[in-house]
């Protein structure tokens, strides 16, 4: 989620040290030339279907699919650059997170912001990592030809409705409903893995992952600033994982690096991601509490969720009542457009940034409330409201890029079943986050059943001695974890 770069980039002029001069090389969204072991990129016009800002230039970099096996072939990385507006000091690489976020689209949208906050002294460079976008090869991962095929495949499952639960997941009917889906979802996810392997990107899945992305970034730095040059990097969200992997895989190449402290790297590298998700949502309900508190303080003039004189507890009660009504309506009619799972998902997305709170409270919530009221009183609306709110009524075929990258990094399969995953969700809903543990579908949760692991996975150590210190920015609490990206010795 890139808007947090406003905070990261504000520190660049004082934190980023000088890098080295850049170079350039050939073809329309050009490629790579190798001369005397040096790589020279030629920058040219960007593909207008991806990047529309004419001030941004683009190129391609060819790199080994497997850096340890030259016989595996080549990958092609799409890269974009916004030129420094002042005296150039070096290159700053950025990644917007995900995994699955497009660096090209991010730079297209935020280049002026990044240049301004870095003092205009650095070229801002981003790229679409493996598994991302239509230009990088391997690119976007698809496992279905259409939304209709996806909906048919998962018809009658929680993949389309989300998990139906309220409170702390103690309702026996909710528990039985979820557990009864375990064998169904086990079979579906095993079949899904086989489908993904049969699609065009299937043969490349083992070459995706964070370690490969880090090596690709270092190869880009070699091509732009020269072999061995310090690498300056700012990453947010999953981009912090890339940063943490980079500084430990290439400690001698660390220039000026900024990450936000949202991930425990050792836990991510050594535990199954289905259990790691619990660490991710450990503080999530605290963010929600801040939201309802702010809503109560704003009153109905600033927050449509609240009524005059309500406390934070009152606002929470109203939201929980809405979830309960959606839950009861879904029990009577499983085809209702707004399910409890959908409301939990929308709340989670709103909590990600305080800047999301006002539109969530004043636009999204009233729409959801109106739809739920109609459902609850058996006056189900159709047409526009249904199309807007139904979870999987989307225009684009669902991408599995996030799962492909996240699961490629995961530890080897340990025999964890869908039943194990569901029982962990129920437990976590009671002890950690009653609102957000049960979010589904969730790439973290499905990794134990994903069929592929990357040919290279970095699993530590995460306490290397670095060429330069790393700046770690972290909120007191976060919707996506209480853990710091790197341990104190790195700071």
One letter per element, helices H and strands E, the order comes to: HHEEEEEHEHHHHHEHEHHHHHHHHHHE
- In angstroms, what separates the terminal alpha carbons? 24 Å
How are the strands of the biggest sheet laid out side by side?
Answer: 3-4-6-5-7-8-9
- Extended strand count: 9
The parts where pLDDT drops under 50 for at least 5 residues are 1-39, 380-395, 482-491
General description of the model:
The structure is a single chain. The chain has 19 helices and nine strands. It has 491 residues and is α/β, with parallel strands linked by helices. It has a seven-stranded mixed beta sheet, sandwiched between helices. Strand 1 (32-35) and strand 2 (38-41) form a beta hairpin.
List the helices and strands and how they pair.
Layout: H1 5-9, H2 12-15, E1 32-35, E2 38-41, E3 56-64, E4 74-82, E5 90-95, H3 103-117, E6 122-128, H4 147-153, H5 158-161, H6 172-180, H7 182-198, H8 210-225, E7 231-235, H9 238-249, E8 254-260, H10 265-270, H11 273-280, H12 284-298, H13 312-332, H14 340-351, H15 357-376, H16 384-389, H17 401-409, H18 418-431, H19 443-446, E9 470-473
